[in-house]
Every structure is written in C-alpha cells, then in structure tokens.
Specification:
Mean pLDDT: 93
Helix content: 25-40%
Number of helices: 8
Oligomer: single chain
Distance between the termini: 42 Å
Largest sheet: 4 strands, parallel
Number of strands: 6
Radius of gyration: 18 Å
C-alpha cells in the first residue's frame, strides 16, 4: 500500500477482498456476486420464492459482499454476516471488526477498524486465517450503519463444532471460515419454522484445514 500511494500514476495493487480504495471493493464485490445471483435465481426456480435469511462469514468481507449484494434490495430477506469471535471479546482475542471496531482508515479506505485508543491497529486472533483481519470492506460498514445487514460473531469453539457437525452429518468439509457462518446458521435455523428457508454461503473447502482442525481438537492424523 505504501508503494502504491507513492506511485499511483503507474501502479495498481491487487488484493482478494472488498477492502481498499475505490474501485477495488466494487470490483471484487461484483466478481464475487456471481454466487449471490445464482443463489437468488435458484431460490426462485426451486422453491418459488426468495429465502428468509442469507448468512455468510465476514473477514475482509469478499464472499459475504458477493452473496449479499444481489439480495440487498429484497427487504424481506434478512442478511447476516458472521465474524470471527475468537477466544473472547477482549482486544487481541478476536477479529470481530463490525462488532467491536470503530470508524477509521486502514489500507486506503474509511471503514470500521479494530484499533486502540491512539488509533493504532489492534492485534487480532482467529483460528481461521481468512477471517484474521483488523478491518472490513467499506460497503459492509455502510450496510451495518444503515441496518441492512446484521453482524454477529461466532467463537473459535463454535466454528470447530460446526466443522465437525458438517463432516459427520453432511459428509462435507467446510473451510474454517465458512464454519463460523454454519455455527450461527444452526442456531438461527433452530428458531425458525420448518417451512422457512435459510441459505448459507459455503465460501471454501475445508480439506486445507483438516490438519489444523486435528491439531486444535487433539486428534492424531498419523
């Protein structure tokens, strides 16, 4: 980012999330929105209506921005972003920017940031490398401030439990990032009627995370 700021006339940077200055958050959101558009179209085709709620995990926010964007104007669809609650709500123990952060500037955009009293970026923690980030995309900040998206968090322990529930009951290995969304989705679905529909964005495969899950749960992979 420092190099880009000093050489903006002939340099671009590439980052895989909806963070940074315009037009990069918009570009990544639009690329990612393919899955959201397909989910919306398939809902209308297969169940004849839109879902009651759409849930996705949020770190920088790329998969969730792409998932939510096609549903933003559908007022009857609840949108929920699930952040990394880590070990606790104490500073440095989580990566829940929209839950605990304050407005600030990070990586070239004004958004919510996890920071200390002096405005310095805080340390963060998550068992998921993909959610271990002290900021979030500016559009997510807008959706939070307008109330269009509800942002919650799931702890490390809840994500690990959700990973194993999916593996045992569905035969699927979700990414640890996705497991945060699944953890909240299971609680949300339990409060809904059986005829209501909840969509969870499966933002990644968990085969890359198997060794880490085994280490965290004390399982021998030998």
């Amino acid at each position: 980012m420092r190099d880009w700021m000093a050489s903006v006339r002939d340099t671009h940077y590439i980052i895989g999330s909806v963070v940074g200055p315009h037009p990069f958050p918009m570009m990544v959101r639009d690329f990612q929105s393919v899955i959201g558009r397909e989910a919306r179209e398939q809902s209308l085709e297969q169940i004849g209506r839109l879902p009651d709620e759409v849930i996705a995990c949020v770190g920088g926010g790329s998969n969730s921005a792409g998932m939510f964007y096609p549903f933003v104007d559908d007022e009857g669809v609840a949108l929920t972003g699930v952040e990394a609650g880590g070990r606790s709500g104490d500073p440095g123990e989580h990566a829940s920017t929209l839950t605990y952060g304050q407005p600030g500037i990070l990586h070239g955009s004004y958004s919510y940031v996890l920071q200390d009293g002096d405005g310095q970026t805080s340390d963060v923690h998550s068992i998921s490398a993909g959610l271990d980030y002290p900021g979030v995309g500016p559009e997510h900040s807008y959706w939070k401030d307008t109330g269009r998206v509800n942002y919650v968090c799931a702890s490390d322990e809840e994500a690990l439990d959700a990973f194993q529930v999916m593996a045992r009951t569905e035969g699927m290995l979700p990414a640890i990032e996705t497991s945060h969304a699944i953890a909240f989705a299971m609680k949300a679905a339990a409060k809904r009627n059986k005829d209501e529909v909840v969509i969870v964005c499966m933002s990644g495969r968990g085969d890359k995370d198997v060794n880490e899950v085994a280490r965290l749960t004390g399982q021998d992979m030998a």
